[in-house]
Amino acid sequence: MTQARPLPAPGHGGVDYEMRVDFDRLRRYRLDRARKSLEASECGALLLFDFYNIRYTTQTWIGGALGDKMTRYALLTRDADPVLWDFGSAAKHHQLYSPWLRPEDCRAGMLGLRGAIAPSAGLMESAVREIVGMLTDAGLADAPVGVDIVEPAFLFEMQRQGLAVVDCQQLMLDAREIKSSDEIMLLSQAAAMVDGVYQDIVDVLKPGIRENEIVALASKRLYEMGSDQVEAINAVSGERCNPHPHNFSDRLIRPGDQAFFDIIHSYNGYRTCYYRTFGVGSSTPAQRDAYVRAREWMDAAIEMVKPGVGTDKVAQVWPTAPEFGFADEMAAFGLQFGHGLGLGLHERPIISRLNSMTAPVEIRPGMVFALETYCPASDGFSAARIEEEIVVTEEGPRVLTQFPAQDLFVANPY
User: Do the domain assignments include residue 71?
Assistant: First the structure.
């Protein structure tokens, strides 16, 4: 049988001799998906504060340090182009370099930097008044306004000025659920960058290096390769492996450690979540056994990924929480786990025994999600952690994460 051609990860630049990411097509696709989700709802407009929803609809981005300040926002109505309020200089930049937005739709805005400017200053009041005027002019004053995330003070001001506010995060996650060929290519490129970083990690994974040094090395290499945000890197080794702390420390890595890493970064906004586990110089029977079981759980989950299958069928092949040492599924959440990938790290579908058994989601072509498994070792402190990123096609699953993980990889063996 002919092996399927790998999903392309062609490089950063545009060229005339290959079809790569078409960013105009990507922008049209995302805005069209958001519009269709809006049109299928009760809402007259969507008011978006979530950084990823703003990028999805306006195709704009500014530094990640401002992503949690709740002061950028965008309004999408049924019959008009999106309007964006941003830091003043960023709005000016969009007017110059984002021609898909009308210059008059890129406006300076400021709401308060998560309360640093108190609501009593009136910024929120005037912002809501402007939005009410726009909705009134569009004949939408009486229609509900969908909001994804919001500061309480802003929500209260919307209600005070007579707006009916409903949740639209579900609408936007619906829109973002199915990825286009351009999105899949960007996700593939992001994963390819991590493939290379894992080779760099293997080269230096020796006794005496610290977890934080590996985080520094990985961050540097990702930015050198074109990452636009290194969101987080977990580096976990030795006795820190069990229980999983979901962070890194300054621990010195020692001979015979089991160590696992999670590299979360984005390329043109599209994220990875990509675990790999290694032995440092050698491995023990307990470590190898844990890895074999984690791999078996992973392979069983991948085997279930087919269009039309419910996410409950995927979660069902994983062990229950008590089977690997936890009291219940809430306590074990995030260890045997799946989550959508896109502009956000955790999109749809979320796959877990905690939620999927009672509220399954149908797997559909165009979904991209990560599957994660975790198995504690019988020695009481080691553990194996594996993650694969999956693209769902009509023919079944395609794996984006290519660094070897079928067997426990021993780095720099003695």
Answer: yes
How many domains are contained in the chain? 2
For 156, residues 6+ apart whose C-beta sits below 8 A from its C-beta are none
- pLDDT greater than 50 at residue 1: no
Residue 341: partners with Cβ closer than 8 Å, 6 or more residues away:
187, 270, 271, 272, 273, 347, 368, 369, 370, 389
End-of-domain residue from the set 175, 206, 228: 175
Same domain? 189 vs 284? yes
In three state form, how does the secondary structure of 140-155 look? CCCCCEEECCCCHHHH
Q: Which 8-state DSSP code applies to residue 52? A: H
The model's pLDDT over 181-193, given as tens digits with 9 standing for 90+, comes to 999 999 999 999 9
SS3 of residue 18 by DSSP:
coil
Q: Where residue 185 sits, what CATH number does that domain have?
A: 3.90.230.10
- Verify that 63 and 121 share a domain, yes or no: yes
Residue 12 lies in a domain: no
On whether both 73 and 113 belong to a single domain, the answer is yes
What is the SS3 assignment for 64? helix
200 and 335 co-located in one domain: yes
Closest-CA residue to 290 (of 274, 278, 272): 278
The residue type found at 247 is N
Full residue range of the structural domain in which residue 232 is found: 181-411
pLDDT of residue 349: 97
Phi, psi of 135 (to 5 degrees): -65, -40
What would the pLDDT profile of 320-348 be if each residue is shown by its tens digit? Answer: 999 999 999 999 999 999 999 999 999 99
- Report the CATH number that the domain containing residue 76 is assigned in CATH: 3.40.350.10
Over the chain, what is the mean pLDDT?
A: 96
The closest alpha carbon to 137, from 202, 56, 80, 63, belongs to 80
| Cα distance between residue 233 and residue 217, in whole Å | 11
Got the DSSP string for 277-301?
A: EEEES---HHHHHHHHHHHHHHHHH
pTM over 0.70: yes
Give the three-state DSSP class for 376.
strand
- Per the CB < 8 A criterion, the answer to whether 244 and 385 are in contact is yes
> Which amino acid is located at 105 in the chain?
D
166 & 196 share domain: no
Same structural domain, 248 and 347: yes
Per-residue pLDDT band at 410 (split at 50, 70, 90): very high
- Tens of pLDDT along 222-266? 999 999 999 999 999 999 999 999 999 999 999 999 999 999 999
